[in-house]
Design a protein that fits this description.
Helix-turn-helix domain-containing protein, 7 helices, mainly alpha, 2 domains, 0% strand, Homeodomain-like_sf
Amino acid sequence: MKPIKVLELSEVDRLKLEKGYHNGPTHSFRIRCKSILLKSEGKSAPQIAEMLEVTVPTVYTWVKRYEENGIKGLETRPGQGRKPIMDCSDEEAVRKAIEEDRQSVSKAREAWQNATGKEASDITFKRFLETLVQDISV
């Protein structure tokens, strides 16, 4: 069996990772910090993967990113993740659709879809409306 590679961390790096694990801006960043801390404690990649419910190659990727770029390498890079269906460019079309039929979200959604050529579920459309209402009231 291959020996487990243990990451050697300075006290400053360990403190940064612990702070990132406890107070990181996103769940994924916190999990990545935890994986590096576990690796420095002598855990194997398969053990870490099982504990964090990720794949073994994912753990190796995080370790490599940390070794190359430090804690900055664990942050989610720009452009990653699913792009929003609706954004601020849709605001005017949504307002117009709501003005045409204030009583039916489904009809307003259909009008917006016809006007923009985009598609969204009733739930997505309602959530977007909620953010519009919050932005107006603030």
